[in-house]
Amino acid sequence: SRDRGATWSQYIDILDGTDAGIIYFEQSVTQLADLRLLAVAWAYEEQTGQSRPNAYVISTDGEAAFSAPQSTDLQGETAKVLSLPDGRILSLYRRRDRPGLWANLSHLDGDTWVNLGEAPIWQGAVTGMLGQANTSDELGNLKLGYPSLVNLPGGDVFAAFWCCEDGLYNIRWVRIAIDS
Questions:
Q1: pLDDT digit string (tens) for 85-133?
Q2: Which residues pair with 161 in a beta bridge?
Q3: β partners of residue 162
Q4: Which of 24, 73, 80, 115 could connect to 15 by a Cys-Cys bridge, CB 3.0–4.6 Å?
Q5: Looking at the DSSP assignment, which residues form a beta bridge with residue 101?
Q6: What distance lies between CA 133 and its chain's CA centroid?
Q7: Rounded to whole angstroms, how far apart are CA atoms 156 and 178?
Q8: Which of 114, 79, 77, 115 is nearest to 98 (CA)?
Q9: Pick from 50, 35, 27, 30: which is nearest to 106 by CA?
Q10: Ramachandran sector of residue 72 (left: φ over 0; alpha: ψ -120 to 50; beta: rest)
Q11: Mean pLDDT value of segment 72-87
Q12: Is pLDDT larger for residue 177 or for residue 127?
């Protein structure tokens, strides 16, 4: 908005999978050290009702022009990303095939996503969009998600996410130490 939110005369499409039958849920955007914008999203194939590996795009101008979607190869949903001070990227996401909330450390080699390592952050039930029921039922049965991340002084990362444990919904937080 050019008038502090009073009107919204323009918008941009960060990820648009309409022609391919892909819905991009829960996009996450972070600014990289070189001032480009990186966006990551949960890629959901509407026809099959199944999630695909998380997709990413990069802004070439720091504003409105984004690249075509590419795969991170992360088997995740509800991925959120954070640019770390050293230029690497931390992603937190719910895996489709393993229980819990997972962290992935990666970097960009030019515009190519390179995965460096992955580890569980919190263990919970296997939960995801598997295409075995209608979409609204599967969404209603999810047991964790929507992590939020922030860099802390000293190099650690603070993350919060929602989860369901023994029928109770909670907001959990973790402090993540990033190895160099």
A1: 999 999 999 888 888 889 999 999 999 999 999 999 988 765 554 555 4
A2: 172
A3: 145, 171
A4: 24
A5: 94, 122
A6: 23
A7: 6
A8: 77
A9: 30
A10: alpha
A11: 93
A12: 177
Complete domains list, the chain, with CATH: 18-176 (2.120.10.10)
Determine how β-strand 76-83 pairs with β-strand 89-95. antiparallel
Instruction: Starting at the earlier edge strand, list the strands of the sheet with 89-95.
Output: 76-83, 89-95, 101-109, 112-122
By residue count, the chain amounts to: 180
Encode the chain in three state secondary structure: CCCCCCCCCCCCCCCCCHHHCEEEEEEEEEECCCCCEEEEEEEEECCCCEEEEEEEEEECCCCCCECCCEECCCCEEEEEEEECCCCCEEEEEEECCCCCEEEEEEEEECCEEEEEEEEEEECCCCCCCECCCCHHHHHHCCCEEEEEEEECCCCCEEEEEEEEECCEEEEEEEEECCCC
CA distance 111 to 67: 9
CA–CA separation, 151 vs 61, rounded Å?
24
The position carrying tokens 């001070």 is: 85
Q: How far from the centroid of its chain's Cα atoms is residue 70's Cα?
A: 13
Contact (Cβ atoms closer than 8 angstroms) between residue 79 and residue 102: no
List 117's β-bridge partners, or say none.
Answer: 105
Contacts (Cβ under 8 Å, ≥6 apart) of 74: 53, 54, 91, 93, 104, 115, 118
